[in-house]
Amino acid sequence: MKRICAGCYVAAKERGMFDCPFCRAAIPDNDADNLTMLRARVRKKDPMAINLLGEQYFYGGLGIQKDMRRAVEMYTEAAELGSVEALFSLRNANYHGNGVQQDKAKGIKFYKKAAMQGRAMTKMGDKDSLESIKEAFMVGGVATKEHYAEALKDTKPPLRK
After folding, report:
1. Among 3.30.70.1070, 1.25.40.10, 3.30.830.10, 3.20.20.70, what is the CATH number of 29-105?
2. pTM of this prediction exceeds 0.90
């Protein structure tokens, strides 16, 4: 359930390493084995695994029936254990009303919390971040004119010499 960068993944494959780079276990080649491995990590309270299981409920993957409410429960547990990705998933669920009653302001609060904890795609300078801050400003009370102005300033391309 750990992530590695794409370069390390490619380098491992070039060296003939086709198992887990961390524990050297064989990587499952079917949904049932993947789900078994995932649930084993969930039982150990691995926040990344819990978030990933939430995604399976959200999208209906690995042979799991789609259940958005269960997905939100999994995202909430993963977020409580420190998963920044789960915070972002909770943002989407609340903002769009997937599995919970739609609450844009609550969704934006999760978005802000994910950004504060280091989720790169929610930081200033990202175009999606700018759009979210604009939406937060429009909802009222969540973002200020200053937040929007700062985000707008940070999305401008740097001057070239």
Report:
1. 1.25.40.10
2. no
